[in-house]
Every structure is written in structure tokens, then in C-alpha cells.
Amino acid sequence: MSGCLDGVSCPSWSENIAEQRNLISSIVSGGLFFIGWWILIDAAAAKEPFDPAFHTPGVFSTLALFMINAVSNAQVRGESYYSGGCLGQTGARVWLLIGFLMAFGGLIAACWILFGAYVVPDKDNTWPGVAIFLQNALIFFSAFVFKFGRTEDSF
């Protein structure tokens, strides 16, 4: 048995982790997004009835994630190659603002559903409300990790 792991090498932590920043932020962001939707699917598949309208904040948060990450940081700063377009830098900033507003709106709606439908009526099982809130919070953090965790706008 001796020597069976001699050929296995571990990555060196001494190398510059900033070179891998885009990869790490993409993986973390995708993981948070996946876990958020997985939690909500788990709550929706439970035996208790789950109102289909409670999926709306998650859909808005997902759309907000795409809207926030559709605009590059260079476009917002006005340093992009494509300075034209519909409104140029102003259009990119307005699009980003609308995306942030949708993300915050989805998170606020998830809080409202949690407390208005599960906590205040004093239901025995509050897991569906907690799952809705966790889904939206994880998608919200996923959008921010992907947007601000990257060093460049390249993939």
C-alpha cells in the first residue's frame, strides 16, 4: 500500500490566486444560484400545498441577475469599445439600476411572503417561506459575486 498516492499532486497555494479570480467568482456565483433554486424546488415538492404565485420573486430575481450581468463594468464607466447604442453610457447605467431595483424588489417580496404568509399567521411549518427567502437571498448574492468578483469583463 505504500506509495499509492505518490503520483497525486496538490495545487500550490503560493501561486497568485488573483489570476484565477474570474474562474472562482463564476463557480461561486453559479453554485449560489443553483443552491437557491434547489432549495425552492425542495420546498415546492413537499407534501404541503405551495401557492404557485410564490415563485414570482425568484423569477424576478433571476431576471435581475441576467440584467445586472448583461452590462459590463466598462460600459458603465464609459470605457467600452461600443460607446454608441441606444443611450450609450446612460443607457447602461439605467439598465443596471433597473436590474438592481428588480433584485432588491425580489428580496423584499420574499420577506413579505415569509412573514405575511407563514410567520404572522403562526403556521406550524414555515419552511416554504424560509425557502422562498433563502432562494432570493442566494440569487441576490450570486448576482453581486458575479458582477463585482471579476477582474476583467472577459470570460
From TrEMBL:
Q: How does it sit in the membrane?
A: Multi-pass membrane protein
Q: What do the Gene Ontology cellular component annotations say?
A: membrane
Q: Which residues cross the membrane?
A: 23-41, 53-74, 94-120, 126-146
What's the domain of life for this entry? Eukaryota
Its annotated compartments are: Membrane
Q: Which keywords does this Swiss-Prot/TrEMBL entry list? A: Membrane, Transmembrane, Transmembrane helix
Main localization is membrane
Q: Which GO terms describe its biological process?
A: late endosome to vacuole transport via multivesicular body sorting pathway
Please state which protein family the record places this protein in.
Answer: Belongs to the UPF0220 family.
| Name of the featured protein | Transmembrane protein 50A
Q: Which organism is it from?
A: Nematostella vectensis
